[in-house]
Amino acid sequence: MAEKKKFYAIAVGAKPGLYTSWPKAHAQVKGFPGAKYKGFTTKREAELWLKNPVHTPTAAKVKAAKKISMAPADTSPRPGEVTIYTDGGARFNPGPGGYGVVQIYNDQTKELSGGYQHTTNNRMELMGCIVALRNLEHRDKPVTIYSDSQYVVNGITKGWAKNWRKRGWVKSNKQPAINPDLWAELLDLIEGLNIIFRWVKGHAGHPQNERCDEMAVAWSGKSDLPVDSGYKG
């Protein structure tokens, strides 16, 4: 999770142009009908896309475009639904780590973040989801969580975590399940919710995922972080 500068190109929005700050970019597209925008890792790529935002790359350019591909358009927030984006990670894994959350409900955005002095990538990915749901205000609304962690998404959508709990936190191969404390809390938090977990490709220019990554990286670099008491390293 190396910290790097991001560029956000807005083709259709309140004020189209190039931005290096997601909060500023988001202010231009939030609630704007037909908003069209995309995140990039270099200024040059953003400028080229702005010149022709409907361009489809040729086969010769597909390889170069992989690093800047956007997540599917259906990851955008929907009216009446709570949309949550999360990310987390740890430097050196295990090491100091952090998580970031962006929650959007009816054009209202809330950000949450935090970190621990010694933890793992997977624990921070789980913690992002947990903190988001701990602070969920609209529990009577449909909820969609977008995470770039297949570990988290598969653990819920494929029923792995529920089965681990039924077997006393033992996996099908008779090995102990990792992070049972966080999985147990996440399962409790989603109980009774109309919730969907979806995977989104990380580090691929998705603005909200990139923002979550920025928060997670920032926290992992802080000093005097609290202890992750559940980590058994």
If you had to describe this structure to a student in words, what would you say it looks like?
Helices cover 33% and strands 24% of the residues. It has 233 residues and is α/β, with parallel strands linked by helices. Strand 4 (82-90) and strand 5 form a beta hairpin. Helix 4 runs parallel beside helix 7 (180-190) and helix 6 (160-166) crosses helix 7. The longest helix is centred in the middle third of the chain and has 14 residues, at 121-134. The radius of gyration is 18 Å and the shape is globular. The chain starts with 6 loop residues before the first strand and ends in a 13-residue tail after the last helix.
List keywords for this structure.
alpha/beta, five-stranded mixed beta sheet, 233 residues
Task: Report the end-to-end length measured between terminal Cα atoms.
Answer: 21 Å
Order of helices and strands: EEHEHHEEEHEHHHEH
- Mean pLDDT over the residues: 85
Name the structural class. Answer: alpha/beta
Total E-strand runs: 8
Name the poorly predicted regions.
55-73
Measured by DSSP, the beta-strand proportion falls in 15-25%
Largest sheet: 5 strands, mixed
- Helix fraction, binned, reads 25-40%
From the spread of the alpha carbons, the general shape counts as globular
Integer-rounded radius of gyration? 18 Å
Distinct helical segment count: 8
